[in-house]
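Here is my example:
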Amino acid sequence: MSLVWLEAALPLGIIGGMLCIMGNSQYYIHKAYHGRV
């Protein structure tokens, strides 16, 4: 594994993780909202 590949993959991994967390929280908020109504 080269250092350049690691430096390129690290920001992508962080962005991907943030998108995954945001998507999961939106899903649970949406589910909770419709569960109440």
